[in-house]
Every structure is written in C-alpha cells, then in structure tokens.
Write a structure and sequence with these properties.
The chain has 19 helices and 20 strands. The chain has a six-stranded mixed beta sheet. The protein has a four-stranded mixed beta sheet with strand order 1-12-11-10. Helix 1 runs antiparallel to helix 3, helix 10 packs antiparallel against helix 13 and helix 16 packs across helix 17.
Length: 620
C-alpha cells in the first residue's frame, strides 16, 4: 500500500517538474510558452522545431532521472521493510524462547480420564482428543491451513471465526489429482519414527488400508466411516503414495487431515501403551494415577515444538479440573469442557484467564418416525417443529455459548444460510398445518421417547406438550435410559418422536456433516421388520424401499450428491438442500453445541480450523 501511494505521488510531481525544467532550458516562462509558434517565417518555424526537440529531450532526461530516483527509493524501502520484518521475527522468537525458559518450558494441561489406548491412533472419537488431535505425537498427510481468527464475544472470551478448510502439507509435501477418484501424494523424506525407523510411503498405504477394517481403533471409528469409498491404497515407491476411490468423495481432505499415520511395526502394541509417532513430541512417563507427558523430540525433522514438555494431569471430573485451572495448577484443558456455570462465570471474570468458543461439532435434534402415522404426513412434522421455541430452549437449557438454529451447518460452512437457519416459533401456522393433517381435536395420542439425562430434552418435550394441548392434541412422554434409547434409535423403532440425541455438525466441507448425520437419510427414521439396520440379516429392507422413505428418493439422491462433493454441479445451490431439508422435516436442529475452553493468560496458542491447538506453536 505504501509503495503504491508514493509511486502515485512521484508520478504526479514528475509531469510538472519536467515541464518547468524544459521551460527553463528554453529561456522562457509561462508567458513565453504561450507565444511559441506565433511567427510566420521559416526561421521562426525552424527555431520552434529545434526548441520543441530540445524540450522533449530535456523532459525525457528528467523522466529518466526521476525513474532512477524512484527505483532506488523503492529498493531502499523494500530492503528496509525486509530488515524490519526480520528484526521483528527475531524479537518474537527471542521473546518465545525467554517465555519458555522462564516457565521451565512446560505446558500443563488437564484431562478427566486415562487414555483409551485401543482407540489410539486410528479412532478420533472419545476421550483421546488431546493425544490424537493436537499434531504433537502423530502426523497426517495434510492439515487444515488455519489458524483460525478470534473475535471478542463476551467478557474475556473469544469466538473462533473464519476457519480455513483448505488442506496444507503435513506428511505430504504435495499431491495431484489426475481425476476425481485418484490422489497421488509425495511424502516427506528424511523423517523417522520415534523408534528410529525411517518413514516411507509404505506407512501411508498401511494406514489407509487399516482404517478400512471396521474393527480398527477398537471399532466405531469416524475414520472408518470416512474410508468407505477407498478402493486401494498403495506405495508406488518410497516417496509416493496413491489412494484410489470408488467414487468422488467430497470429504476426502477431511479424512487426510484427520487420519494419524500409523507405525505398522508397533500398532499391535498400542493397547499396552506403546505409542510411536513421527510428531515433535514423544509419549513418556505414563502413570494412570497421575497422567502422562509429551516430551520434545531433539533435532526433530520439522524444527520441533516450542515448549519442552506437555504435562497432562488426569482429574477425577471436570469440576476438579476446573478448580486446578483456577488455581494455576494447569494452564489449559482443551478437549474436555468444564460445563459448570459457576466455574465459567468465575473464569470469565478473571483477569488471569482467557477463553475461546470453539467450532462446534454437535447439534441437538428432534426427529420423527416417518413410517408411523400421523407423521407419515409431513405437514404434521412441520407443524410440531413450529411449536418449538428454539431460542428459549437454547437460552434456558443449552450451554453458555450454544447457538439456536434449524440447519445442520456451522456458520462459515459453504452450505450455511443465516436466513433459513433462523428459529421459527409460529403457533398459528403450526395449528393450520396440524389441522390440515387431521390432528386437531381428534383422539390421536402422540408419543415421544425422551432422554432425561440431557436437561434440554425433557424441557423441549414438555414445551411441545403444552403447545399441542392448545389444539386439543394429547402428547405422552416416556423417559428412557441411555442404552434403551440407543436401541430405539438405531433400529428406528422409537415412538413417534425421539428427543435427546444429537447429530454430528462437523465444520468444513458439508459432505462430512451429511456423512455423519443419521437423522437425514431415514436409517433411524423408519424401522425394518427384524428391527435391525444390518443388511446381512434376514428380513432386512433396503433403505430406499422402506415406508415413509421410498416416497422421498429425490432427497436420498441429494444426500449422495452432497457426500460425493458434486452437489453444486448437480443442483446449483446448497439452498436447494436447505429448503428440502426444512420441508421434508424428518428432523430439524434445535441448537448447535459449543463449549468454552480456557487457558491462563501466560499461554499463547494458535488453533487449527477444527479448534485444536497446534502444539508446535504454543508458547508458555
């Protein structure tokens, strides 16, 4: 910006300065210039032509001189800017080193459970997130570009904004995609596992073949679900890994940015606590009564982490961990929310702590049995949703930082539409729809299965019950235990409504959210005769043939296009998806879950686009 400004000013000065120089050399002022060319004899014409040529030469010389001066000035300015930037970077590095030295180079973090070793490193679900997700112990093919921006929200809290979900290199230095189902990665050279073994593309191929196994990571791994379109993973040479897909996959870069590359020689020892990675920290000093450490690897290929050690302490519960944070015994607790209003209020009022409101990954939903009258009629489903006061439920029964909304996307997602997301509480319109569906003042009793251990669930159910009573509609509530609710949900055999279970609302590509959202595609909304969704069991009815689902095949096609990453090409806009989702009303979101994460003010942290701290950029 500065260079453009000064260049423009010099050009403006140049034309007037050139004119004055030319005038001086000709021996005339402004009046003389006005008289040039007034004579009528040949001598005057020749003199005028000579004078003009002399003026042009003088102006050209002046312009050349000015251009030289400008080039020199710009070069000096650029050199000075580079020197200042280098000095600033050096000062920052020195400040970081001094801060680390002053603090003993230890970042103290809290967790509320021991590691579940069988789920490391190929299962990112559960309580292992401080190990699996922070890039300290393991590396992946790619990582999200990040870090995210932070905007002030409330008190000393900052909300993560503007996440960048473009993949950037990690173990892959580059890649090419000859077509929509082929990915060829060039992997890093000169990398060693913590055991000393050399890393190669064979490790990449092993990892991506391993996650195709449904039992990898102890079973139930999100990575396994994302790997369902992988055909083959091969190493064509020590530095080249190739992954071939069976079909286009919109969430593929989420997979490569989430899958920890695994040591094939020690994977079978992970259950015994042997964790070997390629990251800048190694797993050390495990004590189930105390915790464990991630210790900086000397002379690491990446340049290594900044802090010398990340010390994890295991607490009995979130309240004890929150108390340790308040007293300064730990510096942060990322990965496990405190979820205690009193503790959150104290931390927000503290000058010694700051908090971040992360990128949410959950959405609380209300869903219907679409094969069970009266909710085979979508007007009945739409009517009930209009009786849900999402804002009130979120404010009174959600978390401190949860956000009301009907759509399954995070703000910032390419599919998000703020106008369509607005909660709508409209009893008058609801009555019209319920009347059209034949429910007003008749003998039908609506039923809902409710999970009371989540406070918003019975509150939502009771509010709907009260609103329905205004139209002479009775609603019967049944509280269920968690395991019982799981069975009802997964078999699609719950009563008319189910309240208390959420759905993944993943940041990044909309394809990830669609992939993980069982409430959208009817799997959990319509039962099969043998009460199972296992295609290998006798009596299984394919999804597209189930009552209540088979009438919405266009919607199932839209879901596949979303997961394939071809939705925009086929339908033109994500609003087509959003409007169909709201109209279909198999499920709608009540609110999206966010949680506050806290640190002491002497910690500096950069976060990636999913809200996890980069451990190789933390300062203490």
């Amino acid at each position: 910006m500065a260079r453009d400004y000064w260049s423009r000013m010099k050009r403006e000065r140049l034309s007037r300065r050139s004119l004055l120089k030319a005038s001086a050399r000709a021996g005339v002022g402004a009046a003389g210039l006005a008289l040039v060319g007034c004579g009528d004899d040949d001598d005057d014409a020749q003199q005028s032509a000579a004078q003009t040529q002399q003026d042009q030469q003088a102006e050209q010389q002046a312009m050349q001189q000015q251009q030289q001066e400008q080039s020199v000035a710009e070069a000096q300015a650029e050199q000075q800017a580079q020197q200042q930037a280098a000095a600033q970077q050096q000062a920052q590095q020195q400040a970081q080193q001094q801060a680390v030295a002053a603090a003993g180079g230890v970042w103290k973090r809290g967790n509320t459970s021991t590691p579940n070793f069988i789920r490391i490193p190929l299962n990112t679900a559960g309580n292992n997130t401080p190990i699996n997700q922070n890039g300290g112990l393991f590396n992946r093919l790619t990582r999200w570009s990040g870090p995210v921006g932070l905007d002030p929200d409330v008190a000393n809290m900052q909300r993560m904004v503007d996440p960048n979900f473009d993949p950037s290199p990690d173990m892959a230095t580059g890649w090419e995609t000859p077509d929509a189902t082929t990915y060829i990665f060039t992997v890093r050279e000169g990398v060693s596992w913590h055991s000393g073994r050399a890393f190669s593309a064979e490790d990449v191929a092993f990892t991506y073949n391993e996650i195709k196994n449904p039992d990898s990571g102890g079973g139930g791994s999100p990575l396994h679900l994302m790997s369902k379109n992988i055909d083959t993973a091969t190493a064509t040479d020590p530095t080249t890994a190739r992954i071939d897909l069976t079909q286009p996959t919109g969430y593929f870069y989420t997979l490569t940015s989430s899958t920890n590359i695994t040591d094939m020689e020690t994977l079978d020892q992970v259950e015994d606590g042997v964790l070997i990675g390629t990251g800048p920290y190694s797993f050390e000093n495990y004590d189930p009564n105390r915790g464990y450490d991630l210790v900086k690897v000397p002379d690491h290929w990446s340049g290594g982490g900044i802090v010398d050690k990340i010390e994890y302490t295991i607490f009995a519960d979130a309240l004890a961990m929150g108390a340790a944070l308040e007293t300064g015994d730990i510096h942060s607790h990322y990965g496990v929310p405190i979820r205690n209003p009193e503790a959150e209020q104290r931390l927000m009022a503290s000058d010694e702590h700051f908090g971040t409101i992360g990128i949410g990954v959950g959405g609380q939903t209300l869903r219907f049995r679409v094969d069970s009258p009266p909710f085979t009629d979508k007007r009945a489903r739409q009517g009930v949703f209009l009786l849900v006061d999402g804002v009130r439920i979120t404010e009174e029964f959600g978390g401190s930082f949860d956000v009301a909304g009907r759509l399954p996307w995070q703000p910032g997602s390419p599919a998000y539409n703020a106008e369509l997301d607005k909660p709508i509480f409209d009893p008058q319109k609801a009555g019209e729809l319920l009347d059209a569906a034949g429910l007003v003042n008749n003998d039908t009793v609506l039923k809902a299965d409710v999970l009371p251990e989540r406070p918003y669930a019975p509150a939502t159910a009771q509010l709907i019950q009260q609103e329905l009573a205004q139209f002479g509609i009775e609603m019967e509530l049944t509280n269920r235990e968690y395991t019982e609710m799981i069975t009802l949900q997964t078999t699609g055999s719950f009563d008319h409504m189910i309240i208390g279970f959420g759905n993944w609302v993943k940041p990044g590509d909309p394809a990830v959210t669609v992939l993980f959202a069982d409430a959208y595609d009817g799997r959990m909304n319509a039962a099969v005769p043998n009460q199972t969704n296992d295609p290998n069991n006798e009596g299984y009815v394919p999804l597209r043939e189930r009552e209540g689902v088979r009438d919405e095949l266009e919607w199932l096609d839209m879901l596949e296009a979303a997961k394939n990453g071809t939705f925009i090409d086929e339908y033109g806009s994500w609003d087509v998806w959003n409007e169909k989702y709201l109209d279909l009303a198999w499920s709608n979101h009540l609110f999206r879950s966010y949680s506050g994460a806290w640190s002491t003010t002497n910690v500096g942290i950069n976060f990636d686009s999913e809200g996890w701290p980069y451990v190789d950029q933390v300062t203490v």
